[in-house]
Write a structure and sequence with these properties.
The complex is a heterotrimer of chains A (639), B (101) and C (473). Chain A has 639 residues and is mainly alpha-helical. Helices cover 73% and strands 3% of the residues of chain A. Chain A has a two-stranded antiparallel ribbon. Chain B has one domain: Helix Hairpins (Orthogonal Bundle). Classes of the chains: A mainly alpha (639), B mainly alpha (101), C mainly alpha (473).
Chain lengths: 639, 101, 473
């Protein structure tokens, strides 16, 4: 099966081509079969690859498959070739699995949409791109997947393009991502200059010899690469596109947030772990950006009233945790959290979609409440997701998040402050998630009468994926039970070959007692968050309003997301537009034509020729030409 | 008469041509100025041919080709000026600025 | 003397005469068949070029090598695509179709000679053959004010620039006593300090070629001429004429001026920076798609200049590859513009609203061409840009590459603006845009090119790197 790994990519690509080119002729059933079937087959192949990999001895779990050579120019070579190791095997499993469930769900959710075929062909392309990104065994091929993912997100976020906000959100996502890609592209080129290759295996093997520990080259490469990751994985300061990205259909948000797109940044950092370990400064930057984002995004999540927006900020915050883990060298923990997060975040988004489906697109949680009785399946699955993300013991999020918070404190690169960022974020997470749960499903109904009548449970096509994901969200964490609780932390053991010498760097020097204490603290923190939410939104429902009034300024600041969008608009977007106008009106029309005139006047000082130099366009162009020659001559003369 | 006399002559001719290119408003005048620039280069070619490579005639051959090409260019140029005259009822280059920015 | 080497050029020249001849005996309503006839000639010429062997003729004046071969294929390819896009356009809007096609072929003959010449006289003559034909073509819509204005502007500025170039050539001849590039190089190796005459001649030559390339600050003719000229000619101008300028420039600078690299490399870096910045930024505010593409093609030249200042084998490879890639994407984009113009008679970007629903094929093709121009993988533009920038990186020009990448980010703004119009706006009309077989052929060929070079560039790169090894770096 390992040899057939390219089939993982082939099926979604075929699905995209079939539905994209001929879909308008197909019947609904056939479209569904192609779209879901292709991803399903891809999942089955991934499963086969994964199981085959397990059969091998841990050291031998490294397999490269060359499909055909791609660019060969002098010393520069790349090929379409794939790398299967524990890291990529786990990723393809998660990506194709979650994507499959989302495809199934979408057949219900998008039922009445006129763009049905277009939607599914984009969705298949999206899955294909992400799988390509994950399977690539060189940076260039990864970059292709990276860009393709960006393009698909643009298409899908702007799927309902009649809506201006959706079209704008698509554009925003694309452009913000391009800023990150700019860093990523430069990072790839710098890597090639220094290593002479873009393949992961030699780069990672030779990193300790080629790069000087803490040297400028290592720091520059990793910071540039991290810039790419920041864009794609929506970290400070490039996170602004993700909350807007929910303008797309809800299953797309689930796909972006859980399986494809945003996890790409984490994956890239983890894939290049050996490079990052050579640059302690970059590691610190990664950890700080991750930690601060985790706290910052969680704080915004506290005040939002839009169900999808809360989930979006929660994703940013959770991604922050993953970067925090990578930054302290606990790459395994980061990927572990990526996996559990994929389950529960996909679940939460699909539940949100189910709620919207029932309430005709209503998003404001202040206008919901009491939905528990209308939609029991959605409620219970949502509860599972919430418990998982809040880090309640026994659910998947607990194991992965606790591992990260613990590593932030205990690893060699860890620090108390990093732990604090994580822990404070965890408190807020528990609070805003339960706030969301209580406001949506509990309490008295605040629905309008007609919505009250309309509210219903979603069809089976939608609830079955919810149930499967809920099960995964509960049990997904049991592959990584820490030693302390008698588990073997199997997932990190499994991933270890992908990270090479990393495990040494993370070695802890704390006793089991400290670990236990920290674990208890974080459980208490989570429960505290839940309790607070309970008091605020079930018992004393008038309390939030009072608090909001008392701390008016802070409330508005956070409610408006710290005005970051407005600031970016004022500081970056408007000046750039302004600059363009200046260049056009001022530079081309006034400076070039004007400098031509200026020079003309200079000559005119000598004689009475000034009138003859009146502007006329052809002659102005000629003058521009001559001025160019004169400037270049001047450059040579003054040198 | 040394090489420099010729070079200075050609430089003066070139600058006059360029000046005309920048100042003439009549399209035909502009074309004539460009012809001056071509001829400045021709003087260079012939002079260099005489003083630098007296045994070969590269420069002189070059200048014959240039004269031919300049004639072709002038023919096409005048045809286009004629076209402009028909469309714009005049050949003032300053009036022809329909497209800008 | 080996005359068999110039058989392809002679053949294409005779074919152009054949077109003129046939034109005499063709009824007006059948004249559009001259288009396919010229296509046949081009295809035969391509075969001849590939099989005509290599060597030198007329001393150094003509040299058939991999360098001239790759450029000849690019020129013939763009002529082919341009004629494909012309057929409907010409039938509807152009009188004297025979001369129109013949002039395109003659211009191509000039370009082929240009790429093959290693001597300044033959280079100059073929350059003039190329440009004079294009003067006529850009003024070809006789009653159209814009077209005749474009012709006048192009003619005046083109002639002036060629006079300046000629003056530079004459000085270079005076300094070195020869017009053969090899001889010039041999003379320059000895001279330690370049005199003022050499500097002046270098500057004039750079200015003359930069005009053909439309590099800032010698670009000012380009937007007007591109907007005014018949659109197929604009497509041809934007690729083939630039390619001709590039072929000559690379031949002169890498073939004879490498001993004095320190003189001109900083200059090209400055030109590249200005060109990329100005081209990309001014393009943002354009409302006419031809004008926008004109500025975009100025910007594309900036990227090529980035590699030109790297002056290495990889740089030459990347430039030629980029020209190939750019040919597919740019002529493809123009083909969409022409199809739209033929149907609706307008080039305004706002008229493209909702094109994705009126003609999904045109819309998606334009998106693909634009993405290739931006350099998004796996399309050809990415491979091209990657190699260009790699060449510069190898020489350590990090900031230059930084500017290049940054400006290509900016370029997204104006390309995506069109995409937004096509996909995210409601159409004002609902009639589908008809695409004839010839335009469809051009579109499909360009699409295949953009995708094939992007996905599997290896054979192209290996052929072109043979062309790059013509020079000794």
């Amino acid at each position: 099966m390992l040899d057939k790994v390219w089939l993982v990519l082939l099926f979604p690509l075929l699905g995209f081509l079939l539905n994209g080119l001929f879909g308008w002729k197909f019947k609904r059933g056939l479209i569904n079969l192609i779209a879901c079937g292709s991803v399903g087959l891809s999942f089955l192949v991934s499963l086969g690859v994964f199981l085959d990999l397990l059969k091998l001895a841990p050291e031998a779990r490294h397999f490269e498959k060359v499909l055909f050579p791609w660019v060969v120019s002098g010393s520069f070579k790349t090929a379409f070739s794939f790398l299967v190791d524990p890291l990529s095997a786990l990723m393809i499993l998660v990506v194709s699995g979650v994507a499959f469930l989302i495809h199934i769900y979408s057949t219900g959710y998008m039922h009445d949409d006129p763009g049905y075929v277009r939607y599914f062909s984009y969705l298949n392309l999206f899955t294909f791109s992400m799988l390509l990104l994950v399977l690539a065994d060189n940076l260039l091929l990864m970059y292709i997947g990276w860009e393709a993912v960006g393009l698909c997100s643009y298409l899908l976020i702007g799927f309902w393009y009649e809506k201006k906000s959706a079209a704008d959100a698509g554009k925003k996502a694309f452009i913000v991502n391009r800023i990150g890609d700019f860093g990523f592209a430069l990072g790839i080129m710098l890597t090639f200059v220094i290593f002479g290759t873009v393949y992961f295996t030699p780069i990672l093997e030779r990193a300790p010899e080629v790069l000087q520990y803490g040297g400028a080259a290592a720091t520059a490469i990793t910071l540039l690469l991290f810039l790419g990751a920041v864009g794609k994985s929506a970290q400070i300061p490039l996170y602004v596109w993700l909350p807007d990205a929910m303008e797309g259909p809800t299953p797309v948000s689930a796909l972006i947030h859980a399986a494809t797109m945003v996890t790409a940044g984490i994956y890239m950092v983890a894939r290049l772990s050996a490079l990052f370990l050579m640059a302690p400064v970059s590691m610190l930057v990664v950890a700080i950006v991750g930690g601060v984002t985790a706290l910052y995004a969680a704080s915004i999540g506290l005040m939002q009233n839009d169900i999808k927006r809360v989930l979006a900020y929660s994703t940013i915050s959770q991604l922050g945790y993953m970067f925090l883990a990578c930054g302290v060298g606990a790459f395994g923990a980061g990927i572990f959290h990526l996996m559990t997060h994929a389950f529960f975040k996909a679940l939460l988004f699909l539940c949100a979609g189910s709620v919207m489906h029932a309430l005709a697109g209503e998003l404001n949680i202040q206008k919901m409440g009491g939905l528990k009785k209308h939609m029991p399946v959605t409620y219970w699955t949502f509860l599972m997701g919430t418990l998982a993300i809040a880090g309640i013991p026994g659910f998947s999020g607990f194991f992965s998040k606790d591992e990260i918070i613990w590593k932030a404190f205990s690893s060699a690169q860890g620090h108390f402050l990093l732990w604090f960022l994580g822990a404070a974020g965890a408190l807020m997470t528990a609070f805003y998630m339960f706030r969301l749960l209580f406001l949506t499903f509990h309490g008295k109904s605040r629905l309008t009468p007609e919505l009250e009548k309309r509210a219903h449970e979603s069809p089976n096509k939608m609830t079955v994926p919810l149930i499967i994901l809920a099960v995964l969200a509960v049990i997904g964490g049991y592959v990584g039970i820490p030693h302390l609780l008698g588990g073997g932390n199997r997932i990190e053991k499994f991933l270890e070959p992908s990270f090479g010498q990393v495990s040494k760097a993370v070695e802890t020097h704390h006793s089991g007692g400290v670990e236990l204490l920290m674990m208890i603290i974080s459980v208490l923190i989570a429960l505290g968050g839940v309790y607070l939410a309970y008091t605020f939104y079930i018992k004393k429902t008038e309390l939030p309003k009072k608090l909001a009034e008392r701390y008016r300024s802070i409330y508005t600041l956070i409610y408006n997301k710290y005005y970051v969008d407005e600031i970016y608009n004022a500081v970056i977007v408007q000046p750039l537009k302004f600059f363009a106008i200046i260049c056009w009106r001022f530079f081309d029309v006034i400076v070039i034509d004007g400098s031509a005139n200026g020079l003309a006047k200079l000559v005119g000082l000598i004689g009475n020729l000034i009138r003859r130099f009146e502007t006329g366009y052809v002659r102005n162009y000629a003058l521009g030409f001559v001025v160019g020659v004169v400037i270049i001559l001047g450059y040579f003369m003054l040198r | 008469m040394t090489l420099y006399h010729y070079l200075i002559l050609s430089a003066i001719l070139f600058v006059i041509g360029m000046y005309g290119l920048l100042t003439r408003r009549n399209a035909v005048g502009v074309l004539m100025s460009i012809e001056l620039m071509f001829n400045a280069a021709n003087i260079n070619f012939v002079a260099f041919s005489k003083f630098i490579t007296p045994n070969e005639f590269i420069g002189q051959i070059f200048s014959i080709f240039v004269i031919t090409i300049a004639a072709a260019e002038a023919a096409v140029g005048l045809a286009i000026v004629l076209l402009i005259y028909r469309n714009y009822k005049g050949i003032e280059v300053d009036n022809i600025n329909f497209m800008k920015w | 003397m080996n005359l068999t080497l110039i058989i392809p050029e002679i053949f294409l020249f005779l074919w152009a005469l054949l077109i003129l001849f046939v034109d005499f005996f063709t009824a007006e309503e059948k004249k559009h068949r001259l288009g396919p006839l010229s296509l046949v000639g081009i295809v035969i010429t391509v075969v001849l070029v590939v099989f005509s062997g290599q060597g030198q003729a007329f001393g150094e004046m003509f040299s058939a090598d991999y360098y001239s071969l790759s450029f000849a294929i690019i020129f013939l390819g763009s002529a082919f695509l341009a004629i494909c896009t012309s057929i409907d356009f010409a039938r509807e809007r152009i009188k004297h179709q025979g001369e129109y096609y013949a002039l395109i072929l003659l211009s191509t003959v000039g370009m082929m000679f240009l790429a093959a010449s290693r001597e300044l006289l033959s280079m100059y003559v073929s350059l003039e053959l190329t440009t004079i034909s294009l003067f006529v073509l850009s003024a070809y819509l006789k009653t159209d004010l814009k077209s005749s204005e474009a012709g006048l502007k192009y003619m005046i500025l083109g002639a002036a620039s060629s006079a300046i170039l000629l003056y530079g050539i004459s000085l270079l001849y005076g300094i070195t006593g020869t017009t053969v590039l090899k001889g010039i190089q041999a003379e320059l190796v000895g001279s330690a300090f370049p005199g003022p005459l050499l500097v002046i001649s270098l500057v004039f030559i750079i200015a003359g070629f930069s005009f053909k390339l439309a590099a800032v600050p010698f670009h000012m003719w380009a937007p007007d001429v591109y907007e005014g000229a018949p659109t197929p000619i604009t497509a041809y101008l934007s690729v083939a004429s630039k390619g001709a300028g590039l072929a000559a420039m690379v031949r002169v600078f890498f073939g004879s001026l490498l001993p004095v690299t320190s003189e001109w490399i900083p200059l090209f870096m400055a030109l590249a920076t200005m060109t990329m910045v100005l081209g990309n930024i001014v393009a943002i505010r354009q409302s006419n798609i031809k004008r926008m593409l004109a500025y975009s093609s100025i910007a594309q030249v900036g990227y090529i200049l980035v590699a030109l200042s790297a002056a290495s084998e990889l740089a030459t490879t990347s430039m030629i590859l980029y020209l190939l890639v750019y040919m597919f994407a740019n002529i493809g984009a123009f083909a969409v513009v022409i199809a739209f113009y033929n149907h609706s008679g307008t080039d305004e970007i706002c008229e493209y609203a909702g094109l994705s629903r009126r003609s999904p094929f045109l819309a998606i093709s334009l998106v693909i061409f634009f993405l290739s121009l931006v350099g998004i993988p796996p399309l050809a533009g990415f491979v091209g840009k990657y190699l260009l920038f790699l060449a510069a990186i190898q020489k350590g020009y990090y900031w230059l590459v930084g500017v290049a990448v940054l400006t290509s980010v900016i370029s997204l703004f104006y390309y995506m603006n069109v995409v937004r119009q096509m996909y995210f706006r409601k159409p004002t009309k609902n009639d589908p845009v008809k695409v004839s077989w010839s335009l469809r052929l051009a579109l499909v060929l360009s699409l295949i090119g953009v995708i094939a070079v992007g996905v599997y560039p290896d054979p192209f790169v290996s052929l072109i790197s043979k062309a790059a090894s013509v020079f000794v770096y």
